[in-house]
Design goal:
Helices cover about 40% and strands about 15% of the residues. It is an alpha/beta fold and about 325 residues long. Strands 1, 2, 3, 4, 5, 6, 7, 8, 9 and 10 form a 10-stranded parallel sheet that branches. Bound molecules: S-adenosylmethionine, 6-(5-methyl-2-OXO-imidazolidin-4-yl)-hexanoic acid and iron/sulfur cluster.
Length: about 325
């Protein structure tokens, strides 16, 4: 497994003839995964809106007028009801999100209880709560959390165009704390914010140089939210998005690459291309955090048409099994 990708090499992959790129991505995909299997994660916003951060894409930032009201933390019982429903509909992972800069005080204790409850339901638990200290990451792990989502969002060079209230290093520090606590890392970014191809290569390089790679890599297509500074961004080229997915697959071959936000605006053909390019996970359920997602019945119809099976097992992950097989065949 390589962890020494250069930005130039990644730009080279992004620029390959499309058919060669997709072929290479499929080959990588099949070395580590069943290419007809897809993992489903369901999101729930447990604390919506009123966020003090100024992320220019985000409907939940208090800096912009997006019509998303600021709400308090949800009650544990309601969260667990939603987790049970998601499990009943076939999701294996339940991810709770909070519009916080970082978790604090009593609210953090309540989130720990939610995590324990999700684990008791027999699901993988993921959370995205903003920046974490090392101690908070450890406490989440002790509560049973499996994954922590914290995105880099963009390349270090483009980042300052998008967020001013925390810097790139803050994000890397949180990711280090998450790793140290032996949590699985879910880390990706957003495409379509006005960045260049080189910036996208810079983001992928940051992710693919991590050792180990993030276990999950969400690739979000910007959802242009009215009231945010990015609301009037240009349409993003579909095939460039597919290329970004393919290069993520090639450079992080044993990670789940997740086709994330923005899927609601993608037709079946575009989603099929993304799966062909190596995406093997989606957010499943009618809402992301606040924005709309594909309807579940449309997803089920698409999976049927493509012959995609939904992943039933939670642990051990396909990645771990594959890496284990690698080691065995290498005789170490
Ligand atoms: N507040 C926490 C944080 O930012 O770390 C967790 C929740 S935040 C909404 C999680 C991620 O959602 C962001 O890092 C960003 O990548 C993604 N996201 C938010 N708004 C989006 C949008 N309009 N389009 C695409 N992705 C978006
Ligand atoms: C991620 O990378 N995308 C998800 C999840 N991690 C938390 C969130 C997408 C949010 C889209 C806008 C919204 O629903 O508010
Ligand atoms: Fe807050 Fe997260 Fe939205 Fe940024 S992305 S404004 S930190 S909720």
């Amino acid at each position: 497994m390589r962890h020494d990708w250069t930005i130039e090499e990644i730009e080279g992959l992004l620029a390959l003839p499309f058919n060669d790129l997709i072929f290479q991505a499929q080959q990588c995909h099949r070395q580590y995964f069943d290419a007809n299997e897809i993992q489903l994660s369901t999101l729930l916003s447990v604390k919506t809106g009123g966020c003090p951060e100024d992320c220019k894409y985000c409907p939940q930032s208090a800096h912009y007028n997006t019509g998303v009201a600021s709400e308090g933390l949800m009650a544990k019982e309601a969260v667990l009801r939603a987790a049970r429903e998601a499990k009943g509909r076939g999701a294996t992972r339940f991810c709770i999100g909070a519009a916080w800069r970082e978790p604090k005080g009593r609210a953090f204790e309540l989130v720990l209880e939610m995590v324990r409850g999700i684990k008791d339901e027999g699901m993988e638990a993921c959370a995205t709560l903003g920046m974490l200290s090392e101690e908070q990451a450890m406490r989440l792990r002790e509560a049973g959390l499996d994954y922590y989502n914290h995105n880099l969002d963009s390349s270090p060079e483009f980042y300052e165009n998008i967020i001013s209230t925390r810097n790139y290093q803050d994000r890397l520090d949180t990711l280090r704390h998450v790793r140290k606590a032996e949590l699985n890392v879910c880390c990706g970014g957003i495409v379509g914010m006005g960045e260049s191809r080189r910036h996208r290569a810079g983001l992928i390089a940051q992710l693919a140089r991590m050792e180990p790679h993030p276990e999950s890599v969400p690739i979000n297509l910007l959802v242009r939210i009215e009231g945010t500074p990015l609301e009037n961004n240009e349409d993003f080229d579909i095939l460039e998005f597919v290329r970004t997915v393919a290069v993520s697959r090639i450079t992080m071959p044993s990670s789940h690459v997740r086709l994330s936000a923005g899927r609601e605006s993608m037709d079946e053909a575009m989603q099929a291309l993304c799966f062909l390019a190596g995406a093997n996970s989606v957010f499943y359920g009618e809402k992301l955090l606040t924005a709309d997602n594909q309807q579940e019945h449309s997803d089920q119809a698409l999976f049927r048409k493509l012959g995609l099976r939904t992943q039933q097992h939670t642990t051990p992950s396909s990645r771990r099994m594959a890496e284990c097989a690698d080691r065995l065949s290498a005789g170490s």
